[in-house]
UniProtKB/TrEMBL annotation:
Residues covered by the CASTOR ACT domain: 70-126
Superkingdom assignment: Bacteria
Pfam families, per database record: ACT_3 (PF10000), ACT_7 (PF13840)
Coiled-coil segments: none
Protein name, as recorded: ACT domain-containing protein
Family annotation (InterPro entries): ACT-like_dom_sf, CASTOR_ACT_dom, DUF2241
Organism: Luteimonas viscosa
Domain DUF2241: 4-69
Amino acid sequence: MQAIADLQELLLHMQPELDPGRYAFVTLPAGFPLDPAHVVASIREPEGLSVIIPEQVAVELGLPVAFTAAWITLTVHSDLSAVGLTAAFSQALAQAGISCNVVAGVCHDHLFVPVGQARAAMDVLRAAQAADGIHVSDSA
């Protein structure tokens, strides 16, 4: 499928899907051996390697969890150069009082929201996908 860059098309076809698991944001100690198969996402920071892994893996390895999240994938194939999608859904979530950490993959956007607000986040995203859910200004 061709990547979509048009904001209206992206919003119309977001199709959020909630993963049934719980995911932990952790910082790995230097040299910590972690099976790469457990890593959902990672980024190197001055403080160490931050990773998102299944919560149960973090617990089993005794890693301190900074944040436990639910994982929502926007299944639309978003173009990495598209403008406004993150702003649109994050604004809708913010208006509902839901924090969101976003990881962009090559094909999809992945949202990590507080576990206790996962269903509410899905409701907000589905409303945003509806014709009157998010209004995108032509002047933006």
